[in-house]
Sequence to fold (90 residues):
Amino acid sequence: MELAVTEGADELVVVSDSLLLVNQMLGRYRVKHENLIPLHQKARILARRFSRFSIRHVLRAGNKDADRLANLAVDRANGKLVERRSADVR
Fold:
């Protein structure tokens, strides 16, 4: 979400294989774990920066693109050089 804001995105669609995460972001479930509360609050604030924000659940088996993108993000956060290609962003 931070990258989307930095890149100037106006709209964001999040697809997650975590039903818990989706329901927490939609306000259906509360975040109970003390360490996750600040991250959840930050995500909710970031979501409001988009003129259009949506989040939906998909089964893990149907989420290969998102899994690949998440792995790219983890690699980037761990300091690995990741080349940006148009195929990496859909």
User: Anything to note?
Assistant: The beta strands are 11-16, 52-57. The helical segments are 2-6, 19-25, 37-47, 64-77.
